[in-house]
Amino acid sequence: MTKSQHIGIVAVSGEGAALCYRTICVEGAALFGAHDHPEITMHTYSLAEYMRHIENNRWDEVGQLLLLSATKVVNSGAEMLVCPDNTVHQAIDLIRPQSPAPWLHIAEEVAAVAAKRNFHRLGILGTRYLMEGPVYTRALAERAIAYDTPDSADRERINAVIFDELVRGEFKGTSRRYFQDVIEKLADRGCDAVVLGCTEIPLLIAQTDSALPVIDSTRTLARAALREAAVRTIV
Question: All domains of the chain, ordered by start, with CATH?
Answer without folding.
Answer: 2-105+220-234 (3.40.50.1860), 106-216 (3.40.50.1860)
